[in-house]
C-alpha cells in the first residue's frame, strides 16, 4: 500500500512538471487572450480616423499600420494590448491618385484649335475655355464669308461636343419710303426730291424738303444705320418769285 501511494505521488509530480514545461515552451508563443487581433486593430483605426488601412503587421506587441486618408499616407504605431496610439505621423511615401481624384491631361490648345478648323472651315476669331457638363472644354467661334459657327470641343479627348451655325445676313438697307418717314420726322414740310448717293464705302439718302415758310432743307440719311444730318439752304424757295 505504501509503494502504491508513492507511485501515484511520483506520477502526479511528473505530470505537473510536463504541463509547466509545456506552458513555458508553447504558451508564450501564442498571443495573450487580451491582445487585439488584426481585425480589431484595423477596425479601431478606421473607426477613429475614417480612412483606409493599407498595411498592418504585428511586432513586439505593437501594430505597425499604414493608413490612407484623403490621398495622404500616415504611419501609425498601436499598442496591441491597450489599443493606445503610440505614434501617428504623415508618411513621406508618395501615393497614387485615388479614383475620386483622377489625373486629367488636356490636349495642347494649338492641337485643339486645329481639330476645330478641321471640323469647320473658316477663320478662328475666338477660343476660350469653358465648363461643358463638368468637362473641361473649349468654345471656339469660326467665321467665313457666309456663316458663323460656334464649336464646343472636349479639352481632354478632342471630341467635338457640339456645332451650331448661323448664316451671316448682309446689312439691310433702308427703303426710300423709310427714308422719307425719317426725313419728315426731322423737318416738317413737303418732300420735293429724294435721291441715293454713295460717298466712299457709305451710302446715303438725300431728301429735299420745302417747309411752310418757304425754306429748303436737305436731310442726309445713312442708308444702313438711319443716322441723320440736316442742312438748310441759305435762300428761300423761288416760289415767291414765281408768284410775282
Q: Which helices and strands, and how do they pair?
A:
Elements: H1 2-26, H2 38-49, E1 52-59, E2 62-69, E3 72-79, E4 85-90, H3 109-119, E5 123-132, E6 135-143, E7 147-154, E8 160-167, H4 176-186, E9 190-199, E10 202-210, E11 215-222, E12 228-236, H5 239-243
Antiparallel strand pairs: 1-2, 2-3, 3-4, 5-6, 6-7, 7-8, 9-10, 10-11, 11-12
Domain PepSY: 37-87, 107-162, 174-229
Pfam families: PepSY
InterPro entries: PepSY
Taken from the alpha-carbon principal axes, the silhouette is: rod-shaped
Query: How far is it from the N-terminal to the C-terminal residue, by CA?
Result: 181 Å
Q: Figure out the total of helices.
A: 5
Helix content: 25-40%
Unreliably modeled segments: 26-31
Structural class: alpha+beta
* Mean pLDDT over the full residue set: 80
Helix and strand run: HHEEEEHEEEEHEEEEH
Strand order of the largest sheet: 1-2-3-4
Protein name: PepSY domain-containing protein
Transmembrane segments: 6-23
Keywords: Membrane, Transmembrane, Transmembrane helix
Domain PepSY: 37-87, 107-162, 174-229
What does this 3D model show about the protein?
By secondary structure, the protein is of the alpha+beta class. 26% of the residues lie in helices and 41% in strands. A 4-stranded antiparallel beta sheet has the order 1-2-3-4, with helices on one face. The chain has a 4-stranded antiparallel beta sheet with strand order 5-6-7-8, with helices on one face. The protein is rod-shaped and about 160 Å long. This is PepSY domain-containing protein. Keywords: Membrane, Transmembrane, Transmembrane helix. It holds the Pfam family PepSY.
